[in-house]
Every structure is written in structure tokens, then in C-alpha cells.
Amino acid sequence: MANYDVVVIGAGVVGSLTALELSKHNVSVCLVDRFPEPGCGTSKANSAIVHAGYDADPGTAKAALNVRGCGMMEALCGELDVPYLRTGSMVLAFSEEEARKIQALLERGRQNGVKGLEIIGRERVLELEPQVNPEVFAALYAPDAGIVCPYELTVAAAESALDNGVEARFDFPVERLERENGMFRVISKSGEIRAAFVINCAGVYSDLFCGEPSFRIQPRKGEYLILDRKYDGLVHHVLFRTPTKLGKGILAAPTVHGNLLLGPTSEPIEDREDTDTTAKGLGLIRESSKYMLPGLDLRGVITSFAGLRATPSTGDFLIGWSSGQEGLLNAAGIESPGLTSAPAIALKLVELLGERLPLQKKAHFHGRQKVLRMAELSLEEKNKVIRENPAYGRVVCRCECVSEGEIVDAIRRNAGARTVDGVKRRVRAGMGRCQGSFCMPGVLELLSRELGVSQTELTKSGGLSRMLTGTLKGEE
Amino acid sequence: MIKKITCTTCPMGCDMLLEHEDGKILSLTGNRCARGKAYAENEFFHPARVLTTVLYVKACDSMLPVRSDRPIPKDRLFECLRAVKGIRVVPPVHRGDILYAGIAGDANIIASADM
Amino acid sequence: MGTDVLVVGGGPAGMAAALSAAQSGAGSVLIVERNERLGGILNQCIHNGFGLTLFGKELTGPEYAGRYADQIGQAEIPCLFNTTVVSMTGNKEVLIRNTDGERQIEAGAVILATGCRERPRGAISIPGSRPAGVYSAGTVQKLINCCGYMPGKRAVILGSGDIGLIMARRLTLEGAHVEAVCEIMPYSSGLKRNIVQCLEDYDIPLYLSHTVTRIFGRERVEGVEISGVDEHLAPVEGTQRFIECDTLLLSVGLIPENELAGYAGIVMDAKTGGPLVNDRLETSVPGIFACGNSLHVHDLADFASLEAVEAGKNAAAYVKAGGEACQEFECRAGNGIGSVVPQRMSAKALAEGATAYIRVGRPFENASIVIKRGDRVIRTVRSPRLTPGEMVKTVVRDSGDGDLTFEVDSHD
Fold this sequence. Notes:
The structure holds three protein chains of three kinds.
Chain A: E1 3-9, H1 13-22, E2 29-32, E3 49-50, H2 61-80, E4 84-85, E5 89-93, H3 96-112, E6 118-121, H4 122-128, E7 138-142, E8 146-148, H5 150-163, E9 167-169, E10 174-180, E11 183-188, E12 191-200, E13 220-227, E14 238-241, E15 251-254, E16 260-263, E17 267-268, H6 279-292, E18 301-309, E19 318-321, E20 328-332, H7 338-354, H8 379-388, E21 395-397, E22 402-403, H9 404-412, H10 420-427, H11 440-451, E23 470-471
Parallel strand pairs in A: 1-2, 1-12, 2-9, 5-14, 12-20
Antiparallel strand pairs in A: 3-8, 4-8, 5-7, 6-7, 10-11, 11-12, 13-16, 13-17, 13-18, 15-16, 19-20, 21-22
Helix pairs in contact in A: 1-5, 1-7, 2-7, 9-11
Chain B: E1 2-6, E2 15-21, E3 24-29, H1 34-45, E4 48-49, E5 52-57, E6 62-68, E7 72-73, H2 77-85, E8 98-103, E9 107-111
Antiparallel strand pairs in B: 1-2, 2-3, 4-7, 5-6, 6-9, 8-9
Chain C: E1 2-8, H1 12-23, E2 29-32, E3 48-50, H2 52-55, E4 59-60, H3 61-74, E5 79-80, E6 84-88, E7 93-98, E8 101-112, E9 116-118, H4 121-124, E10 134-136, H5 137-147, E11 149-150, E12 154-158, H6 162-173, E13 177-183, H7 192-199, E14 206-208, E15 210-216, E16 223-228, E17 241-244, E18 247-250, E19 254-256, H8 259-263, E20 288-290, H9 301-321, E21 328-333, E22 337-341, E23 344-346, H10 347-352, E24 354-360, E25 364-373, E26 376-386, E27 392-396, E28 404-410
Parallel strand pairs in C: 1-2, 1-8, 2-5, 8-20, 10-18, 12-13, 12-18, 13-14, 21-28
Antiparallel strand pairs in C: 3-4, 6-7, 7-8, 9-19, 15-16, 16-17, 21-23, 22-24, 24-27, 25-26, 25-28
């Protein structure tokens, strides 16, 4: 049975960045996840926003880690070769009462150490964002807010961790932890591994392993709409409504790939697998967005989705050594601003681990191998790439113009794509306006060829999500 | 007995009512032209359809579209389909080549494309 | 690299346009096709029913494509296969990519024959889970007919357009069970013949005024909820019904494929989803023509090919003689009309007789399409039955003045 110094449960953004941070040290690490790839839970379905840090109450873990994470994000995305845009954000106030609330947010942000915050008036809002409803009073402007691609970030972190010696076990849903002779048995229906330390980054399931009986996750579902890239440039900043007791409300934000994201709703749910969209939720997003951006043409919606947030019963992130379970380090209840905080959480966890496990920096750490993205190259560079590997000249996804070479690379990398959705998230084949109608058969063929499995074995997103049920080819 | 028949001769798609007894047509209503009458009679006595499907060609690892060169009695379509699926295609094949002669009487199964 | 006429797409429209351009003396003609052979979507349409107008025979899609491809070969028109047009400028500089690299072709004239694509699930926002097993009908057609794979065992089909109907039969013949076809409208936009031969022949129920209101199943589709809809197409509470299935096929409309037109700054028509064209099928950018399903979605491949013949001729004339400035009048879609193509007609074309393709907005019985200039009626097309599923083609001839308005005069 495999023995590790550390097992990280959950290859979401927090777990993957933690594994990456650990891979810089001389420790043996195994990153495990219940899905066939990293980033298939909350990390793939959220608002993709780097929050400036004025939301959380001063003194909380959320406040400190948000501000620290926000400051780390640009450099991290650069190192991992994933997109990041410092767009800035606005919290829009549509009444005098809301204007008072954003003033309070400004104060709170300053206490949290957020830089550059200012209240801007109606004229300035409309100058920066001409599509915003002209009934707007004022806005809290945060220049340091930005956007990332949360799943590309997660995948890149996991891949880079694996490049640097971390091992991974996917399709490994942890059922329970047992303590035996000073070691953990990490038990899953697909096997068992041992570790001296366990770091719990299990997202919406993180309360099940945390060893804190009073800590509970009450998941909240958020639904979203995505609009076609032809709306690129309609909105430049992340646009929030003034928060109410019910939450931060429906936002509108550009994505790093030029789509427009609308959402989320916020609905407490019992079933931790419930990522269904609802007529009510999607209706609410449409209605709220139409108020914020009256000129918005919602015929441009290309897809909808829902994600879960691991909302903690305590209201704050649970980060630190478990009081009930020796050797267990928790990063539990990582809801918003979890994505922003993730780089800071990873650092914090490794720092805490270092108190009990001597960590020595490795002499050699390899940065992530650059991703070849045809769309970013000059004509000359593209031709050089195609000469060296003609697969980059074969366009598989026409909407996003993704080549066979890019898809194959996404499959062959460490922690590579194993599913149709995995390919989509990494290289955007199937992410465009036809939503994979055209390229899906081609993607199946490439996955089958590269992974050496029959197309009928391939899944959309792991488990029983088989794409095909049979073949007309006789045997196979 | 009354049988509802929709004429498919032209896009008008007349909905016709055909009254019959003991296998004989007693009356027909709803047709706008003589072609409808002919269609209804044919559809009543000898309903038939062109069969189209695909065959796997192992040598090329691809699918070959095929069809019957004339309509096949409707009640024999599945039986013919089973027979067609047993055809082993050896390339090269050209559009129109007969792959199976004399299916359901005098129909043939022909290739729809070159391979 | 340059060519006189560049045809984007080698489907039924592209092939016909290229042949016609070559026969009209265009000089050099080049077809750029993203697949490894000519035919486009026809290659996956293995059913018969193509070519009645053009060849006087009921051909299958591959046969229809094959006949045209033979003519392209005989005319020695060069084709670039496995080649994608990446972008295009208003100066007719076309950037192509294939395994030889990416390069620019300067064209004297461009004919857009890029076909259409299917509306995805997101466009209609069906609530529920997002499992494997929700596919557009055309994708399933390709999977079964070209790739040799079955996408499911029990299917529900949403949308009773021809592709949805054809796929109901294909799935059934290949051993799957089709539980139902749902159509949100009170009528099917598919051909009667397909309703008879694809549904009735196999006892597949067609639920009109019904839509899918929820998808169930976390990993693979486990079922769908269907609901009746009211006259505003809104689901009626209390009419929900669960149907167990592992596959949901969507056949909820076709949209002209027009990314390239967008790059070139061509003015589009929101009604057709295709470029705005004049009677020469020339877009707002001189020398760029559009035809087939990329201009507006046709009912039959034959019609797309016939339209493309005109585009080919006009492109040839353009490269030989250059553009032609002429007074143009607008063709407006008035009461009861869904769309009119072309959207502009020149005085000269109207004097000689110009072809208009008209789609009504909803079904009419015993009605007329009336074409007017001001209050003056210049043409009346009577029909016992007009449906949005069937395009009406008519020739307009008039030497008067003023824009044209197309209307439905309903006698009931």
C-alpha cells in the first residue's frame, strides 16, 4: 500500500494549489479526488472573480486571506500560464439607502487593507459602463478586482504539482479516514492509501472529514447564464448589486474568454450533488440582469449551469489543525471568496504543516510548461508550429477555433483531460456557440485514440456519464 | 372500417379518409386530386418504403451509406434490415454498386457513396 | 496566393455555386472545405428524398452530393480539403488553415456557402441537470451515420422539424426506442411525408403544443418532464408528465452559420440570421455573395443548390465586370411574413423579374401573399396552405418605383 507524508483530499482550486505549494518541498504528496480530473466540483462552476476584499468582516480568516490572495493572483496566473484580467469591480447602488451601504463597504474594505477603493458618482459609472441602468446613484469602485478562469487555474496547479513529483489518484472518492499506528488510512471504494498527514480540501464535503463535530456545511446553489462571445466588450468591470441580507445578488462580469457571465442565484440545498438549474433561478437572473443592464439581449445566452458553494455553519473559513483528529489539517467551508483566497490558503496550510513536518525547499522546481494556444500566435509562429506538428493545422472545434494539436496536448499533460467536459474546460472545444454539436464526435475520437479506450467507454464528466451506448461496428 | 391516410405525394399533405371492408376500398374522401387517390390505393394495398441504413466497412474503419433501389413492403423492413446488416462490404465500392441482389423480391441493396 | 472566386464550403450550395461560377467564365474558382470530401451535411443525411427538383429522382444525401462532386471533378475545380477558413476581411482577404499552415488568399469575389448549425440547449434554457445524453439531432445523425455509434437506447426528441423526424426513424431502425416527439408549436414544421414515414410508420407519438420542461439524471439522462404549453408557448402548470429515457435529442431550429460574415463587417438580417443581400445575392460588402443555408435556412437541398447557381453566376459577373451601381429598393416583411430574401432588389432586376424567397410567420389556410409598392399590388400568390416550414418562391416583376412590402392576406 502506498505511503505518503501528506494526502490532500480534493483536487479543487484549494487542494491543487496546496499540492503545488507542497511540491516545492521535499515531501511525498498524493492528491486525491473523486472525479477523473481536477477541478470538477465547485472550482468549475463559480463566478470566476478575484474579489478585492471589502465583503468579509474585519478580523475573519476570509478577510485576511481574500486580501492576501487577491494580491497573489496575477503573479500566480502568470507563472501557471493561465488567463487573468485585472478588470476592477463596481458595487452599484440604485437608491440612497444602497448608497449608504456602499459607503459602509468602503469603510470595511479600508479596515481589511484593500487599496484604491473609492465611491464614484453616477456620471463616472455611466462613463465607465455605458450599459448600466442610468437610474444608478453611485458605485464602490475597486481597481484591484479581477477575473480568472477557475478551472484552467485549478488544472494548471494540479498539472504543475504532478510535474514536480506529486502523485495523484483520481476517481478516488474518500469514504473515511482511519488512524492506525500514528498514520492515516485514507479509504476509498477504489482503494486505500496511507499518510502521516491529511489535508482536507474536500469542498462541499469538507465537514465530513474535518474532525470538528459542531462544524457543518450548508451548501448553497448558484445558477448562472453564459452569453455568446459576440457580447464581448458590453461590460468591462465586474458589476455587483449592493449586497442585501440575502447575499451579494446577481452580478454581471466579463469572462477571460470574452463571454458575459450572469448570476448567481443563492439557494440553500440539502443534496450535495444538486447542480440542477431551475426555471425560477434562471428567470431571476434574467430579470435582475435586465434591470442592471437594460439593453442586454438575452437571446445571446448559449448555456446555463449551476454550482455549489461550501457555506460553513460558522460563517468563516475553517483553516487550521483539527481539534478532534490528530494530524489532520483543514481547509473547510471555503465558499466565496474562496477562489480569490485559494493561493493564500495554500500558503497558510503549508506554513501550518511546517510546524509539525519538517519541510525543506527542493533545489529544483519546474515551472509549468507553456501551453501552445494557436489564437495567441502570430501567423509566422503558427506556421512554424504547424510545420513541426501538422495536428495544429487541423481545426476540430470551429466555434472557438481549437486544433487537434491543442486537444491532444490537453489530454497528454499531467492531470490531463479524460472526459469530454475536461477537454472543453482546458481548451474550450465545445465551449462556443454551438456547444459542441459540431466537434463532439471529433473530441470523442481524439480521447479514444489518445487514452487507448473505446469511444463507448468515454464519459462526459466521469462516473456513469457515458456519451455513447453502443456501436454499429459489430465487434469493438 | 375507416383508415386515415395522409398523402405524401406533394407538400399539401391531404388528410384522407379511406373506408374499407374485407380488403376492399369502399370510398375515399379528403383528396384534392387524382394523385391522392392513387397514393391512397397504393398505401392501402401495398405500403412500401425505401430502406436506408449504414454498414461498417472494416477495411476502411468507416460507415458506408446504403439503400434499397426501390421501395420494400413496409411489413418486411425490419426483416430486410437484418439481412442487410449481414452484408460484408469489401472496398472499393462505387455509388450504385449492388451489394445484395434480390431482397424482398426484386429489390437490391446498393451503395449510396464511393468507398 | 489568389483566386478569382473563392467558395467557402463544399456542401450542396458551395458545389453548385462553384460549378455555376466556372461555367459563367469566372476564371479561377477554388472551393475551401473543412471536411475531407465534398458534400457537407449531405454526407450524414443517408435517407432518401433529395434531388426531386434537380435530378427528377429521389436520391439519398450522399448520392446527391456524389453527383455534384463528380461534376466538380469533371470541371477540374480545385478544392482545398481539411481546410478551415479562420477569418475574412471586407477586402476579400481570406485566412485559411490546414496542415500545410495558415495563409491568406486574396479573392476577386467570395461566395459564402457555410451552411447552418443547430440551436443548442442553452439557447432554449431547459432547466434541470446537465448529464450526458442531451444532443442536438444533427450530432446524433453524424454519430450514427458517419461514426457508427449509438448515442442512446431510449430517446425523447424535442422539435418536430425534419431533422428531428428523420432521426426518430433512424434511431428506431438502428434498435433504439423513441418514446415521443414533442413540438412546442401547435403544428409540425416538418414535411407531412416525414410525419407519416418517420413517426406514424413506427407508432411514435407526436405531442403538439408540448415542450420539455426539465431534464433528470446527474450522470446520464434518466428522464425528462414534458408539459403542455398555452397559446403564448408557456408551460401549463399541472400538465407535467415524466418520460423515462436515456437520451434527449434537440431539433429546435437551425441558424445560418455566419461567423465569417461578422468578421468582414457584413450587415446581417435579424429575421433570417443570414446576411442582408440584394437580388444578386450580394451582401453589403461588394463582391461577397451568400447562398444556401448560410443565407437563410432552406427546406430542401435542391433549393439551396438552385439559389447557389445564381450566386455563382453573379460572382462570375462581378469578377469580369466589377460591381454594378444601381438603384435598389427594400423588400419589407410585413403582416404575417416571417422573412423575405433578398432584402433589396434593384430597379433593373425588378424590371426583368427578380426571385423572392418568402417564409410566413405562422400557418394560414386559403390565404395569399400580396406584394405591394405603396398601395399598389404588384403580385399576389394564392395558396390553400401556407406554413412557416415551407418557403414560397416567386418572381416579382415591376417597373414602378418605391420599396416593396410583402404581406399575408388571410381570407378567413
